[in-house]
Amino acid sequence: MITASLNEYLVISGVLFALGFFGVLLRRNTLVVFMCLELMLVASTLALVAFSRFNGTMDGNVFVFFILTVAAAEVAVGLAIIVALFRLRQTIQLDELNSLKN
């Protein structure tokens, strides 16, 4: 069985984070932006687990547990905000949601 090295995990984590980052910058749909933010969060947790595994400690795994706990609350609040914006404006496109500009 072939095992992956720390560098391979970090490259995968970096690619996932970059995809999420560019998705946040380039997309205009709030749901897609929200999913890209979650992808960035998963990429950071992957890096923490990889460091934890290769250092032989549980510190990274504990951080991941807390990050995923906060992420669950973030998903609930974020989706509630998106639903509220959709009910108010009848759109989820970021270009058309300009209520905070004035």
Question: Describe it for me?
Answer:
This protein is mostly helical and 102 residues long. It has a single domain (6-94), classed as Helix Hairpins, CATH 1.10.287. It is built from three helices and no strands. It has helices at residues 6-26, 30-55, 59-89. α1 runs antiparallel to α2 (30-55) and α2 (30-55) runs antiparallel to α3 (59-89). The longest helix has 31 residues, at 59-89.
Low-confidence stretches: none
The coarse overall form would be elongated
Tell me which CATH architecture applies here.
Orthogonal Bundle
End-to-end CA span = 60 Å
Order of helices and strands: HHH
Average pLDDT figure: 88
Computed CA radius of gyration, to the nearest angstrom: 17 Å
**CATH overall fold name:** Helix Hairpins
How many beta strands in the DSSP annotation?
A: 0
Provide a count of the helices: 3
User: Number of folding domains?
Assistant: 1
Output the CATH class name: Mainly Alpha
Helix content: over 70%
Biggest β-sheet strands, sense, barrel:
none
Label the structural class.
Answer: mainly alpha
How much β-strand is present in the residues? under 5%
